[in-house]
Amino acid sequence: MKAFVIVAGLLCASPALAGPVVREAAGANAAAIQAAVDQFRADLGNPNNGNTAGSQPGGRREINWDGGGATAPVGLFPTPMTTFQNRGATFVTPGSGFSISGQPTPEFAELNATYPNLFASFSSPRIFTALNSNVSETVFHVPGNPAVAGAVTGFGAVFTDVDGEFSTKMEFYAPDGTLLYEQFVPWVAGDDTLSFLGVSFDAGELVAKVRIVSGNAAPGPDEAGSLDLVVMDDFIYGEPVATEGLAITPESGRIFRSADFELVLAIQPPAGTYLTGGRVWLDGADVSAFLLACFQGGSSSEGQTFSCPVPAGALAAGDHTLQVEIDLSDQTRRRNSTRWTIVP
């Protein structure tokens, strides 16, 4: 009973979830957005881990599409695009695939001869687009191991020629598929312009997928009338960490404040490994010690389970994020999160 009271008291005292950290800018050239990009990099942390395999203790990953330099040919890729799996990201589109600009037709002149006058690069010389669609998705996994699903703490992207206030947006999805946040990319009038939007989450939310709508039409036609054609440059995102093998119940969704519920962690470590430690955060505050006093161990078809009863009224009305990280005997970790909206 004592542990139960301690946990309930802590949950009652937890603040409602704060909003995500948003960095955005738009302007006529790279200098106009550089400060916002650099601030977003600082939000995610150093270093840039490049192609280093496996989830690293900290830092971020970046993709600038510029491999091969100014002499590189146009690159065509199927969907899913697996070229950057060593950096923990796979790209999919409902279109026919993807392209990275290059010679002999820089800035997608092979798609339309007017495009070099429309698009600019942030990190010169190459830029990126989906083909036959203006929609793309970035799905995260452990760097170098696409079989193990992962998630990040934030994602940002550079866009070129965002002319419309509501033409281009990003949507951020949790590991359980819940839409965490969406926002339109800042716009600026004119051609050869650049825009940046970066969103990071510092209260425990994790992003498993980012859906990007680039403009209001797929590249190909002239930009005329109401058409706003947009392509992409640099992607910047937090270090991907494995989510597979760690499940939290209840999943993201609404919970009535008048209802009791059971918090359950289901852990299924890879074969030959075992649990060595872990931590739990509620709305960014470390509650590990309190929940350890409440959790009861068990087993199920999913492996080990740990459960704790949460009494009615324990959580204040509003949004709350619970993040769990576990350490395994092979020196790897798993991390997952859930966001509950407590309804009065």
Characterise the protein shown here.
- The strands form 5 sheets. Strands 4, 7, 8, 10, 11, 13 and 15 form a 7-stranded antiparallel beta sheet that branches. Strands 1-12-9-14-2 form a 5-stranded antiparallel beta sheet, with helices on one face. The chain has a 5-stranded mixed beta sheet with strand order 17-24-23-19-20.
- The two termini are 25 Å apart.
- It folds into 2 domains: 2-16 and 243-343, Immunoglobulins (Immunoglobulin-like, Sandwich), CATH 2.60.40.10; 21-240, Jelly Rolls.
- It has 3 helices and 24 strands.
- The chain has helices spanning 2-13, 30-44, 288-292; strands at residues 21-27, 60-63, 75-77, 89-92, 97-100, 128-131, 135-142, 145-151, 154-160, 169-173, 179-184, 194-200, 209-213, 231-238, 241-242, 246-249, 253-256, 261-267, 275-282, 285-286, 296-300, 303-310, 318-328, 333-343.
- The longest helix has 15 residues, at 30-44.
- A hairpin with a 2-residue loop joins strand 7 (135-142) and strand 8.
- With 344 residues, the chain is mostly beta strands.
- Helix content is 9%, strand content 41%.
